């Protein structure tokens, strides 16, 4: 191993070590403080205990290494990949590492949130430093025992050797190491010497998953726990007027029927409503029962009367409103380069298209659920939530408790896709248990989950481009969305910087339907719209699709705009790789190809879809996907994530639809809502660009581009441009894919 | 409430439940076998798949009263040590993403391969079509079923 770079950091800002009472060392770090370098917590080793710092690494005198994975696991593999980073720098064999989910300790964990594909990106350097520091302390301890200089020692797989060939296992020196100063300076490995990062490592929970061990929120139970099923307003815009629980109460398994909602209303009325509080202000009726089934049955037996509180909305109405916004004048300009109006006025030709997408529920396969046990002294919350930190705080405020008395433990999550960023189900569980002072688990049925969701909002884009002398001179994108608009730097994504006259405008309509983040927010449809439009534009310009893109990206290279965070070189790189690996333009007869290139979540992706037509129905056969996400930490996990993103993207672009009528969702289970199934799936062929750039996210970036790749391929096969998702409903073909 | 005697994973369990209680909830809430998962409750997703007399069945649709006298196997009873050939294949391919659907996928695949140890690609795709994987780990699931069938032959 050749150390590549010496790295100095202020240890006092984020690292702590302690000897363990039973022997061994525990090393923790505080990323939270490392972000604020002026904060220097006093370190008094004698005062430290396990709970104080929630260590990332524990090494026992037997040499056993336990790594506490700090990030919630929703299927994106961080429970495996984050410990891999530590183990790499710690120089231990992966087989000797035991990984456990760390409990919530917000004081010591930075960004304990799984979302936005950012977990790895934020943790990368700090996790490496932690591993490297731990290794250095063990080496220093061994060197001191031998009376040699630490630089004469080397480490391989948890065994320290000196020049004479003597060895110590890590376990032999942990107790000494625990008493040493934390080194100010450590070396990080050269990525070329990585032995764990870049190697495919299986999911750390694999044995428990394939044998059906309790792992998920829905599996968690304690002695005496009751089950709660919540009746919420059936339509957005309704509130509870009255209810009759007599039939429900007469059922043998039903223990009690109560209402909740007051706490949430009081919290909101006090002006505390925050982003995670995406729930109706109505009272809700809760059936408490001995089993989940008893609770579901009890809920069905309730008779409730609802009153209309705010207008009941429908899909037709949304279409009308969003179309009105697109043709209207009220916009928020998000980026403006040059003068699009002038470019359009001087154009030889202007092309303009409208692209439309529906609301979408998340449909995590594990429905929303949460455990709460509220007693006079404390509040104990357990379950699948992507934002434990905010859940803890809101519940403390909601119930008027000190935050120290509220604990949140995370379980493995049966999918997230953005849904579990919101805490509505945690707050409901807490309010229920607070009312009856018993441990309960709130369990949503699939119908509850799908009809009281936090949906991806319906969005429409109007894209117009001006062509002058065979060149693209202007690009104007307008977004009309329900509730909120594209955020952050999205208006500065491609083709910002590539077209002289460029403008992005947004407008929105406030609806009473709850909406929120859904895997790759905004870009999940924006990419489809934009990359379909470029396909049409290339045709209009009479230029090869790949060449058009390459040339436009060339323009960006001379554009020093700090807001443009995508790299034209890296986008060109993935485009080239996808073209090469997919045999672009050389497909056999009857196979039609479509291309799409996109940057989001700091990752650059190009995809080519191969389709065939079978009885007039498009069938996606293969998707070639080239990705530049920097260093790939766990290729096995990364591959899974990327393939899943592509197939998820195809499924929702092609099949999934979700509308409203009089405020009521028009689908409520998988018999009326289509999710992609195996028979609809192509083979996904993933290729990573190899480089040494710090890693970026993988949970989301492969999803957005694929819709356009498929639509562009369908155009080649049928001559029909698809602009409205789901594409299958828009093709006048019937395909039943329900189970 | 009536009592039912159920034979699950070669053990007899005596449970009190309403006649119409789906086997799924008896397994999960009364017998503590939580490996069988709830996804839809209406037979559409396959998360709750168990073996009944060797055939893959959706436990959310099977009432406890109908399950008496049948030989029921859940994911917990598929093998002694998690070493059923399908489980091994799942591990080798590293199939799971969130993992929630996987017990159901494994139960469907194992019953299918029992009847058809050497299936074609389209037979595999048809057999697995009823099981939803929301994480869309379909490529890996398909690969693992194929690998398991190769191990069998
Ligand atoms: S829960 Fe039984 S098929 Fe979905
Ligand atoms: S692995 Fe998540 S639902 Fe299949």
TrEMBL record, chain A:
Parts of the chain that traverse the membrane: none
Domain of life of the source: Bacteria
Every Aldehyde oxidase/xanthine dehydrogenase a/b hammerhead domain range: 211-310
Alphabetical list of InterPro entries matching this protein: Ald_Oxase/Xan_DH_a/b (IPR000674), Ald_Oxase/Xan_DH_a/b_sf (IPR036856), AldOxase/xan_DH_MoCoBD1 (IPR008274), AldOxase/xan_DH_MoCoBD2 (IPR046867), AldOxase/xan_DH_Mopterin-bd_sf (IPR037165), N-heterocyclic_Hydroxylase (IPR052516), OxRdtase_Mopterin-bd_su_IorB (IPR012368), TAT_signal (IPR006311)
Pfam families, A to Z: MoCoBD_1, MoCoBD_2
NCBIfam families in the cross-refs: TAT_signal_seq (TIGR01409)
UniProt-listed PANTHER family: ALDEHYDE DEHYDROGENASE
Protein name: Xanthine dehydrogenase family protein molybdopterin-binding subunit
Organism for this UniProt entry: Hyunsoonleella aestuarii
TrEMBL record, chain B:
Tree of life domain: Bacteria
Pfam families, per the entry: Fer2 (PF00111), Fer2_2 (PF01799)
Protein's name according to its UniProt entry: (2Fe-2S)-binding protein
UniProt cross-references to InterPro entries, sorted A to Z: 2Fe-2S-bd, 2Fe-2S-bd_dom_sf, 2Fe-2S_ferredoxin-like_sf, 2Fe-2S_ferredoxin-type, 2Fe2S_fd_BS, Beta-grasp_dom_sf, Diverse_Oxidoreductases
Residue ranges of every copy of the 2Fe-2S ferredoxin-type domain listed in the record: 2-78
Keywords: 2Fe-2S, Iron, Iron-sulfur, Metal-binding, Oxidoreductase
Cited CDD domains: fer2
């Amino acid at each position: 191993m050749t150390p590549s770079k010496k790295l100095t950091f202020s240890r006092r800002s984020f690292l702590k070590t302690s000897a363990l009472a039973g022997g061994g060392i525990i090393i923790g770090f505080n990323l939270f403080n490392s972000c604020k370098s002026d904060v220097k917590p006093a370190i008094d080793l004698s005062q430290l205990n396990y709970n104080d710092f929630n260590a990332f690494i524990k090494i026992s005198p037997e040499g056993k290494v336990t790594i506490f994975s700090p990030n919630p696991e929703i299927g994106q593999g961080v429970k495996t990949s984050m410990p891999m980073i530590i183990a790499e720098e710690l120089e231990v064999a992966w087989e000797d590492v035991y990984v456990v989910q760390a409990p919530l300790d917000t004081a010591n964990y930075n960004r304990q949130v799984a979302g936005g594909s950012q977990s790895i990106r934020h943790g990368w350097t700090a996790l490496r430093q932690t591993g490297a520091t731990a290794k250095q302390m063990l080496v220093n301890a061994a060197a001191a025992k031998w009376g040699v200089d630490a630089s004469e020692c080397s480490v391989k797989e948890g065994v320290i050797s000196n020049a004479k060939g003597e060895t110590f296992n890590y376990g032999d020196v942990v107790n000494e190491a625990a008493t040493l100063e934390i080194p100010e300076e450590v070396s990080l490995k050269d990525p070329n010497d990585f032995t764990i990062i870049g190697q495919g490592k299986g999911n750390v929970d694999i044995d428990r998953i394939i044998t059906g061990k309790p792992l998920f929120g829905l599996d968690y139970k304690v002695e005496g726990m009751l089950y709660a099923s919540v009746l919420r307003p059936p339509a957005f815009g309704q509130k509870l007027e009255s209810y009759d629980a007599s039939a429900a109460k007469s059922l043998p398994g039903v223990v009690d029927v109560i209402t909740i909602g007051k706490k949430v209303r009081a919290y909101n009325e006090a002006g505390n409503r925050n982003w995670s509080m995406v729930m109706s202000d109505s009272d809700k009726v809760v059936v408490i029962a001995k089993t989940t089934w008893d609770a579901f049955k009890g809920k069905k037996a309730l008779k409730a009367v609802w009153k209309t509180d705010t207008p009941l909305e429908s899909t037709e109405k949304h279409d009308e409103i969003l179309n009105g916004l697109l043709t209207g004048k009220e916009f928020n300009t998000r980026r403006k380069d040059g003068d699009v109006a002038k470019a359009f006025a001087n154009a030889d030709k202007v092309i303009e298209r409208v692209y439309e997408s529906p609301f979408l529920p998340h449909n995590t396969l594990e429905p929303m659920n949460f455990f709460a046990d509220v007693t006079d002294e404390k509040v104990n919350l357990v379950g699948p939530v992507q934002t434990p930190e905010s859940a803890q705080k809101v519940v403390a405020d909601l119930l008027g408790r000190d935050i120290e008395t509220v604990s949140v433990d995370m379980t493995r999550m049966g999918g997230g896709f953005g849904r579990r960023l919101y805490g509505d189900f945690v707050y409901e569980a807490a309010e229920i248990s607070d009312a009856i002072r018993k441990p309960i688990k709130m369990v949503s049925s699939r119908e509850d989950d799908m009809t009281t969701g936090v949906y991806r909002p319906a969005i429409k884009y109007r894209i117009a481009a001006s062509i002058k002398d065979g060149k693209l001179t202007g690009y104007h994108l307008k977004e009309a969305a329900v509730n909120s608009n594209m955020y952050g730097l999205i208006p500065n994504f491609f083709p910002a910087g590539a077209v002289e006259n460029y403008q992005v405008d947004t407008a929105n309509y406030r609806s009473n339907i709850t909406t929120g983040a859904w895997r790759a927010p905004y870009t999940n449809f924006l990419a489809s719209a934009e990359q379909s439009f470029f396909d049409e534009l290339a045709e209009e310009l009479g230029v090869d699709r790949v060449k058009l893109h390459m040339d436009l990206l060339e323009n960006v290279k001379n554009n020093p705009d700090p807001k443009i965070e995508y790299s034209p070189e890296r986008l060109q790189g993935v485009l080239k790789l996808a073209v090469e690996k997919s045999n672009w333009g050389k497909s056999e007869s009857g196979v039609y190809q479509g291309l799409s290139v996109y940057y989001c979540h700091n990752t650059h992706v190009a995809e080519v879809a191969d389709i065939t037509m079978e009885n007039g129905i498009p069938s996606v056969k293969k998707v070639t996907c080239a990705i530049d996400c920097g260093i790939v930490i766990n290729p096995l996990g990364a591959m899974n994530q990327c393939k899943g993103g592509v197939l998820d993207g195809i499924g929702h672009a092609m099949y999934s639809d979700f509308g409203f009528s009089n405020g009521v969702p028009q689908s409520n289970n998988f018999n009326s809502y289509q999710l992609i199934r195996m028979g609809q799936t192509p083979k996904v062929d993933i290729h990573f660009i190899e480089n040494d750039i710090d890693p970026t996210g993988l949970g989301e970036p492969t999803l957005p581009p694929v819709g356009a790749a498929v639509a562009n391929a369908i155009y080649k096969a049928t001559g029909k441009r698809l602009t409205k998702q789901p594409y299958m409903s828009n093709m006048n073909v019937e395909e039943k894919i329900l189970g | 409430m009536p009592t039912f005697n159920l034979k699950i994973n070669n053990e007899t369990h005596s449970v009190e439940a309403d006649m119409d209680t789906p086997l799924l909830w008896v397994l999960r809430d009364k017998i503590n076998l939580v490996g069988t998962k709830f996804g839809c409750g209406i037979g559409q997703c396959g998360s709750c798949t168990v073996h009944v007399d060797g055939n893959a069945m959706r436990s959310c649709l099977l009432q406890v009263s109908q399950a008496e006298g049948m030989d029921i196997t859940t994911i917990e009873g598929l093998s002694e040590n998690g070493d059923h050939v399908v489980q091994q294949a799942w591990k080798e391919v590293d199939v799971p993403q969130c993992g929630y659907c996987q017990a159901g996928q494994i139960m469907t695949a194992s019953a299918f391969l029992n009847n058809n140890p050497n299936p074609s690609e389209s037979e595999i795709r048809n057999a697995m079509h009823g099981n939803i994987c929301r994480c869309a780990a379909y490529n890996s699931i398909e690969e693992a079923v194929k690998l398991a069938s190769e191990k069998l032959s």
